[in-house]
Amino acid sequence: MLWNSSAIKGYAIKAADGRIGTVSDLLFDDSTWLVRWLVVETGTWLSNRKVLLPTSVLGHPNLEEHEFSVRLSKKQVEDSPDIDTDRPVSRQMETDTYDYYGWSPYWGTGFYMGGYGQSALLTAPELGAMRRHAEQDIVASERRSDDAHLRSVAAVTGYHIHAKDGEIGHVEDFLVEDADWSIHYLVADTKNWLPGKRVLISPRSVRDIVWSDRLVNLGVTRHTIQDSPPYETSTVVDRTYEKKFHSHYAETGPSGRL
Asked: Are 155 and 174 in contact (CB under 8 A)?
């Protein structure tokens, strides 16, 4: 199911023995475009403390109650490592959280640790090599201060978007697939260039992101984006829409191919 990231924010998080808090942000990896963490505000329960929860602990959303269930107790969350949300999240901070819950970190293994039991398909020597590489990566990562690839959805929302031949608008939202928590599309508001039009942009069209300038650079032209299928909040992004979307970009040639 594709979600607007803006709709996920505000969802309640329900532990086995009660509500924990509400989602205030999503943190994603800008190299894989996978959401790694949910930032949860605990409110008065933990004196307005914020906690990190990996997407792998989330159950199916309750659309009527606007909440996610998690396979944790309130006590587990209460005793989890503190995070400082006023600065970038470091690998050390992530490592501490994974160590506390007894989970394996996703980096250094070549696999996305999304709770799908990937390791069950590997042989003992392969698992041993994976663990060694993971341990080496964790040691190296602990020497670094901040995780250069971990980004806040809230922070990137509003970034200017530049095509190959000029600015086209800004990032208004993200569409996230909750089956694997991958970001499928950026929602671009082009009203300053194409009045009243929103379009979807695949992360594969993103050439780079200049964080200091709050800028997303694309490898496609403004004309390609102008002629792409329109998108509104009421648009159903189904197979028919996606087929049309991908066909349009495939026709633009190698520079615009998805």
From this structure: no
List every span in the chain annotated with CATH 2.30.30.240.
Answer: 2-114+125-150
> Within the chain, which residue ranges are assigned CATH 3.90.50.10?
157-250
Q: pLDDT tens, 141-170?
A: 444 445 567 888 998 999 999 999 999 999
The reply to whether CATH 1.10.30.50 applies to domain 2-114+125-150 is no
Average pLDDT over residues 20-38: 91
Structure tokens at 203: 């992360």
pLDDT computed for residue 124 by the predictor: 54
Phi, psi of 194 (to 5 degrees): -120, 90
Q: Give the model confidence (pLDDT) of 166-222 as tens digits.
A: 999 999 999 999 889 999 999 999 987 877 689 999 999 999 988 889 999 999 999
Q: Which CATH class is domain 157-250?
A: alpha beta
> Percentage helix, strand, coil, to 5, in the chain?
30, 30, 40
How far separated are the first and last CA of the chain, in Å rounded? 21
Select from 75, 90, 198 the least CA-distant residue to 147.
Answer: 90
User: What is the three-class DSSP state of 138?
Assistant: helix
Q: Do 138 and 197 contact (CB within 8 A), yes or no? A: no
Question: Please, are residues 91 and 106 in contact by the beta-carbon 8 Å criterion?
Answer: no
Residue 239, C-beta contacts closer than 8 angstroms, at least 6 positions apart? none
Scan for tokens 């990896």, then name that residue: 29
Distance CA(124)–CA(118), nearest Å, equals: 13
